[in-house]
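Intended use. Records like the one below are meant for learning the mapping from a protein sequence to its folded structure. Do not use them to infer anything beyond what is encoded.
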Amino acid sequence: MIVNTITMKSAVLQNKAYVTVLLPETFDSHAPRVNGLVPLVPKFPMDQKYKVLTLLHGAWDDGTSYLRRTNIEKVAEDNGFAVVLPSIGTNFYTDCYYGDRWYTFVTEELPQMLRRNFPLSDKKEDNVLAGLSMGGYGTMMIGLKHPERYAKLATMSGALNLLHPIGNAEMSGGINAEMIWGGMERYKDSEWDVMHLLDEAVKSGKEIPPIFQVIGTADPLYPMNQDFREKAEGYGLDLHYEEVEGMGHDWVLWNEYVTKICRWAGLAK
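Structure written out for the chain above:
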């Protein structure tokens, strides 16, 4: 894979922003030699727009965690799709009440910049959004607000119902809810509340993409995942749910399921 580490000046953030983009190699380095030299044989049509998996990271981490902790580079290389790995800090992909507009950056500025500079498809059927923990929250929040942009949505150990008592405990564990949402009272039933967004998306008649949800039974976020599952199944959504017995909030699960999600989404064989 071609690994692009990008530092950009964001007009939305009025600051530098960081994103990693993985692209398939342009030429086949294993092509048969001609006169002792490897010819430049394109692996894909030169005008091809790549399918894209955007992976959202968890709290207290960054986009490169997927490169360091999972086999996503190998999966993408073997199957010829691109991967976008934004880094946003611990801001829950939100236009913060007191702070930066990370939601607008991730959903508007970043895709436009990337498509201007890289051969990435903007078609719904070619775009998959997934994330873990805080990134699972970001996936469902963004995906439910913009279901017309994504073919599939996938959440691993997602922080899906922040109003659950477990969510309140998480908020007291170092996440600044006041800065991000103006407090949990403002969060409730707002445009950032995933459970509320699910209600609104169904009421509006929007076509919600198929959803993959996985959670370990020993994960502290298991109860809030059950809240989301029950509501999604109650609405009759296309939800593929899996749980892993005894597994906690762990990269062992996420590494395994990154590959499974790519297969489920049709990105990998």
